[in-house]
Every structure is written in structure tokens, then in C-alpha cells.
Amino acid sequence: MINYEPNTPNLSDANHNILEVKNVSMYYGSFRAVKDLNLKIQPNKITAIIGPSGCGKSTVLRAFNRMNDFVRGYHLEGEICFHNQNLYAPEVDPVQVRKMIGMVFQKPNPFPKSIYENVAWGARINGIPGNMDDIVEQTLRQAALWDEVKDDLRKSALALSGGQQQRLCIARALAVKPEIILMDEPCSALDPIATLKIEDLMRELSVNYTIIIVTHNMQQAARASDYTAFFTMDPDRAGVMVEFDTTTNIFTNPHDKRTEDYISGRFG
């Protein structure tokens, strides 16, 4: 179990970090995929992770809710702390971690069920209290989807457009009451209009949730995030974090030339 008191810290206090990565290296077998990572994530902010392909962005993102546990040979050194508790401590249940730290994937992946059941299923199996109709409506409203689907809740989720499917997947993640939402390239399969809807939704959700997004889209990172971490590869092809700062500073006044070269399109 995860034992913490989420109401104890003052979430408006910039010194409180909802996630803290301490001296972390990640391996697939003998290959070190990410090296010596230290990172602090503030609550109720959007943090973007950017960098060239193969630099470990998705590996880092999936480490936050232990999705990498499903990969043969994966192991981690160091600590990733959620409300000051190490998520990789032996007593921590990964299922509980994934309840508190939800994931939205690159390609929309609704269940082959109705719109209603896509939202209700996770809430039901996790024992979320309350009237299920109310939970479904509230969650779809949070995901800015209710007005579009309220008359078709029994319709197959697979009949929705790509952008609607992705917002439904966000609603599905919200239904189990997480504190953090991880998004791995959530707009890469969407058209520009659907992409902007997701970005607007992220900003609305950040009032109540912490969001961490991996993106290759520099404009998206600049538009949507409060903080940005830039990753690249060292000579051994291990992912390393070069720089972490406010998004404004990363895009207007980066401290490392590698960051400047990447965001200006000179490499990557």
C-alpha cells in the first residue's frame, strides 16, 4: 500500500514536490537506458519532457507509475518518491501506484465497450464510492466530452473520433481519482483541432491534477506546459537530463547549448 497524507502538504507551497526522482538509473538487462536522473515535480503544474527519439523519455514517464515493471529485464536504481514515499519500496503495491498515478497513451485505446462502461469499469473495480451515473457524468464533464456524448452513452466507444476517444481515455483515467496524470505523446495521432482541445483540457485539469507529458512537439511543450525537462543521449546512448527549468526559460533562455540546438531544430 501507499501510505501518505495528501492533505498534509500545502500544495501551493513551491517547496513541496509531489514527485521526486533521486539518483535514478534505469536498465533493460545490462543496458543503462537512463542515467543519474534527479528531478522534482511540483503539484498542479504541467511538466513536459522533450528530447530526441531514444533518449529515455517514455522510460522515465512509465517509471513514475511502474509500467516498466511489465518489461522483462527492467530494473531501477535509486528512488522515485510520491509524497515522500519511495514507489519502489518492497511494501508498495504497484496496482495502488497506478491508481494514484494514471496513464494516457500515445494512441487512443478505449475498451471495446460502451462510452458509459469505459468510464464506469475502472471506477467500479477500484471501489470508487458514489452513484455510478453521477461519476460517469462528472468525469466526462471533466474531460470536456459530456456535451458531445451525453445522448449516446450506450454507443460503442470505438465509434468516436480519434480526439473524442483520447478524451474518453483521459476520462477513464480520471474516474479512479488519481493525483497525477501521465501522458505519453497523447496528441501524436490527432489532427491540429483535436490537439488544441487536448491542450486546453490539460490546462483545465491542472487546477486539480498534476500532469506530466512526453512530447516531440516543441510548440505543444511551449504552449501547454509550466516546466520543461530536456533529455538527450550520452556517448553510451544512455538518456540523460540536460536541463530542467520553467518552460519560458527553456524556450527563451536555455543555459545549455544542447538545449538551444534542439529547440531551434539544429539537431534531433
Structure description:
By secondary structure, the protein is α/β, with parallel strands linked by helices. It has a domain at 43-65 and 94-231 and 238-263: P-loop containing nucleotide triphosphate hydrolases (Rossmann fold), CATH 3.40.50. 32% of the residues lie in helices and 25% in strands. The chain contains ten helices and ten strands. It has helices at residues 57-63, 94-100, 115-125, 132-142, 146-149, 162-174, 192-205, 218-224, 247-252, 257-263; strands at residues 19-28, 31-41, 46-50, 74-82, 85-86, 101-104, 180-184, 210-214, 227-233, 239-246. The strands form two sheets. A six-stranded mixed beta sheet has the order 6-7-8-3-9-10, with helices on both faces. The protein has a four-stranded antiparallel beta sheet with strand order 2-1-4-5, covered by helices on one side. Helix 3 packs parallel to helix 6, helix 4 packs across helix 6 (162-174) and helix 6 (162-174) runs parallel beside helix 7. The longest helix is centred in the last third of the chain and has 14 residues, at 192-205. It is globular. Mean pLDDT is 92; it is low at 3-14.
